[in-house]
Specification:
Length: 459
């Protein structure tokens, strides 16, 4: 057969140099053909450097995608872990709550229960849990936290536990009128409904904290720092501050601060009488009694909450600290079943920069009275309604079952205009007992007695 392009010899590959030359020639012809086509079509040939840069850019894009994927995976894992921790917190179904609208003000009912459940050892003994002398649960603390996401503000209203309200149920047991804390015996639903019916305050969420829950929360953040101006004692709650100044308060002493309503202080640094002293012996030893009872306790609770918030803020983005916090919280803390982790995260991110000192705290204006032979507190109008309007604004509802006045009448609250001046009660002490004449103060947030502790920063 004549020699052609298909008739190359098939001998051994000892002619490799000739094969290499033919390959180079073919590559040159293909390159020339490509350049001719590009020239004919008006397209300039891209340079090798540009191709290399495009390769590098593609590598960076791929690397970026990988990094983003890793971050998402880590965040997803963290979220799932947080959800697992959040699911460990007990939830309870609460009737009578109103679901908040997105980005609109809403109210959280915070209930401090005197339940001793979960307490053991010396703490159980000091609180009466081990002896069985105290059973059931009462709402020793009733605080309504008003959250305004748009304004970025938080306001807390405290309702003293002895405030007389109109009952919605159990009237065969407690009568038509009784203290607000009797509504909590069977759970938060009736208390929530009673607050809305008496005061027109809509409740969107509920948080319950027992004695054990407060101790665990304080220990989870390794205590709070409070500045006590004087040595302080409360023989009933077990509070025992042995020296004045800024100091770490944790464990049982944290609970004792929040519970204290038989508060004594020593401006002259005198020793506490030995044994089980009487009121007269304590006073004769140079200790002064704070006769404001629940009002003083509310002030100390507010100081404790501010100190706790200041402590938590520093650990908000510390995974190790948050893990410890969430690990302890489930013991003694209960949330309503509508609270979600996303909502809590949103609140934390929204208010992580808030100054605890900027949180305004108020106490519902009341006046002292007697009902059925017992000391109680009656809602004081028009001051109470003025305060409610200033705090809750247009979200305030018309009450369906207003609280009684001292004459046990239930008039509807007066119509008041919004004003920046808010009135509040003060208290006086007579022979160790609390009396509550109504006076006015324009800044109840800062109107704290000089002998009470305040948040501080250790040096």
């Amino acid at each position: 057969m004549p020699n052609g392009r298909h008739s190359a010899p098939r001998g051994p590959a000892n002619n490799s140099e000739e094969a290499r030359k033919r390959a180079l020639a073919n590559e040159a012809r293909l390159k020339a053909l490509g350049e001719a086509v590009d020239k004919h079509s008006g397209v300039e040939r891209r340079q090798r450097g540009h191709l290399e840069r495009r390769g590098h850019r593609r590598a960076w894009i791929i690397s970026g995608v990988v990094v983003v994927g890793l971050v998402v995976a880590l965040l997803g894992g963290g979220y799932l872990y947080a959800q697992w921790r959040f699911d460990k917190i007990p939830k309870i179904h609460v009737t009578g709550i109103s679901y908040p609208e997105p980005n609109q003000p809403f109210n959280i009912l915070a209930i401090g229960s005197d339940s001793r459940a979960g307490l053991t050892g010396q703490v159980a003994k000091q609180t009466g849990a081990s002896s069985g002398s105290v059973s059931g649960q009462r709402s020793d603390v009733v605080k309504i936290i008003h959250v305004d996401p748009v304004a970025g503000t938080i306001t807390m209203l405290s309702i003293p536990r002895d405030t007389v309200v109109t009952l919605l149920a159990n009237q065969n047991l407690f009568g038509r009128f009784n203290r607000i804390n009797v509504n909590y015996g069977s759970g938060p639903s009736l208390l929530t409904q009673t607050i809305t019916a008496n005061f027109g305050i809509p409740i969107s969420h509920v948080i319950q904290v027992s004695f054990a829950g407060l101790i665990n929360a304080a220990d989870a953040i390794h205590g709070v720092y409070l500045d006590f101006p004087y040595k302080s004692r409360d023989p009933y709650s077990g509070l025992n501050i042995r020296h004045p100044g800024c100091q770490l308060v944790s464990g049982f002493q944290a609970l004792a601060v929040a519970r204290s309503r038989h508060f004594y202080y020593s401006p002259h640094n005198t020793a506490w009488p030995k044994g089980n002293p009487s009121y007269g012996q304590i006073v004769n030893a140079g200790w002064i009694y704070d006769g404001t009872s629940d009002y003083g306790r509310i002030d100390r609770q507010n100081a404790f909450l501010r100190a706790m918030l200041a402590r938590v803020k520093g650990d908000l983005f510390n995974p190790v600290a948050l893990n410890g916090f969430f690990a302890n919280i489930p013991q003694g803390v209960t949330l309503d079943s509508t609270f979600s982790l996303n909502e809590l995260i949103g609140l934390a991110l929204k208010f992580h920069s808030i100054n605890p000192a900027a949180i305004k705290t108020y106490t519902l204006p009341t006046s002292g009275g007697v009902m059925n032979g017992a000391d109680v507190l009656f809602v004081q109008q028009p001051y109470a309604q003025q305060l409610l309007v200033n705090i809750f604004g247009s979200t305030l509802l018309s009450p369906t079952n207003p609280p009684p006045n001292a004459a046990l009448q239930t008039p509807m609250p007066p119509t008041v205009a919004t004003t920046t001046t808010i009135v509040n009660h003060t208290t006086t002490t007579v022979k160790g007992h609390s009396h509550t004449p109504v006076t006015t103060t324009t800044n109840p947030t800062l109107a704290v007695p000089a002998y009470d502790p305040v948040p501080c920063t250790p040096k």
